[in-house]
Amino acid sequence: MNLAALTHRPESEDSFLYTDKTLHLRFHTARQDVAKVTVLYGDPYWRIPDAHGDDQLVYQRETMTLIGTGQVLDHWGVTLEAPYRRLQYLFEVTGQDGKVWLYGDRGLRQNSADARHEAENYFRMPYFQAIDRVKTPDWVKTTVWYQIFPERFANGDPSNDLAGTKPWHPTDHPGREDFYGGDLQGVLDHLDDLQALGINGLYFCPIFTATSNHKYDTIDYLNVDPAFGDKALLAKLIHAAHQRGMRVMLDAVFNHMGYGSLQWQDVLRNGEKSRFASWFHLHQTPVTPFHNPLKGEGQPQYDTFAFEEKMPKLNTANPEVQDYLLMVATYWIKTFDIDAWRLDVANEVDHHFWKKFYQAVTAIKPDFYMLGEVWHRSQAWLNGDEFSGTMNYPFTQQIEDHFFKRRRTAAEMVALLTDQLMLYRDQTNQVMLNMLDSHDTPRILTLAHGDEDLALQALAFTWMQTGSPCLYYGTEMGMSGGADPDNRKPMGWAKLGQPIWKRVAALVHFRRQHATTLGTGGTRLSVTDTGLIKVVRQGHEMLTGYFNTTEHLVAVNKEAVFAQGFVDGQLAPKGFMVSLG
């Protein structure tokens, strides 16, 4: 047995309260190295005298389930309950070689009665503290999100178009400075279309006053950009969405401000004497002309997002900045009843601020959803006191690497996805945002080289996973687009109700129909002997999906409740089928 591979970390994603009464444990061993893992557990204060009159621990035994196999590790899991809301536990590990070891808080022990009764070597969950349990909003687990880039979704009110607004041509290749006139009225006009599609969550890219078409350079956090409409229109839109059972998520940029903001303009005029100088990270004055190190101009005079001169980075450790941004965050909840914030460049803002943010917004809405933009491992933000979840790029890009780019085999992808699931608590995985494309990535149809069957196969696979799925505007219209800004074309409304729209709508409605199981059920990924990727979701029901990424027909002896390319028991390449049971 590979003893060095045995791992478990208490009070983490390996040991966490899933409900107030249930504890989920995970244990990790070398791949295909261990035959069985048993957890020995009991109340730390429950002891009885042995034959010699000495107190002995009383413990129960529960066999752990192999819940997944990763790149180099097998992952085991079990759910435990405790009548007195406290537990101690020890792992008994049986190797394929027949040897048995005990793994506990003080290290490895050879299996013996004395070692099993060594109280000091038991891990502990000292008390099931309900207040410490990581809580994620249940409604997100049954939500299908739709990401709207407002400037390109629909032009409902030409009267607010900027000078030089371009004609609405969905086949254009937009430039970075182009405007097409999309606005909030356009969204309101098409809410019924989104409802028909099956959407019940609207995720808006920024709508606040800014100079760019993307609005990630905020000038005024407390006003709607005039090219999009006004606060009265936003209130009307949110109310109409809520009437349709749709939640609303706005996008906020608290890492940096726009160049035209009142605060930064004051710094430009007054330098270090500005009352807002401490709101930013100034290193020297004057701050203009900006020194861009990418152009060999030396060290920047102030910190920015990336090396963007017009996006000065905020000093979120400054109490004045904290108070201002928390006022902004709570204002839109109190006044407009939004349900969620998507937080841009969230990993570059300090944890201290995000903890304050969490307390402020959940004090208003306990089930408020906080989604951080983090493109890498996110454990540090996902311990119940900062974000609910993050944009799950590391997960979904593994899918792209197999389905679109063929950088990974099916087995490699399954292993990597399984390892990803082990990074977070179950309730956290359930509210991660799963999207194959967004305003920051090429569109999936372009990644699929224009192959709609392949694009929809990958989308269906993604939507069978744990996590809250998100559709990027225009995917249902078969829109294509390369990297930013080509992925931000004006919406192709002419394909509304056409075959590609119907296929995507069928997927959305399938996810909604089975939302309980797909939102909160267990997930097991594998590859069959015939080369199919198999996804088993166990919850309110059992759903089993098969995805054919081989180059030949594969027989599947199942009845399909949802399928593509499945005829007479044969699953075609680029096809999938989902069965009950």
UniProtKB/TrEMBL annotation:
GO terms for MF: hydrolase activity, acting on glycosyl bonds
Signal peptide range in chain numbering: none
Matches recorded under CDD domains: AmyAc_CMD, E_set_CDase_PDE_N
InterPro entries linked: GH, GH13_cat_dom, Glyco_hydro_13_lg-like_dom, Ig-like_fold, Ig_E-set, O16G_dom_2
Keywords: Glycosidase, Hydrolase
Domain Glycosyl hydrolase family 13 catalytic: start-end pairs: 147-511
Protein known as: Glycoside hydrolase family 13 protein
Source species taxonomy: Bacteria, Bacillati, Bacillota, Bacilli, Lactobacillales
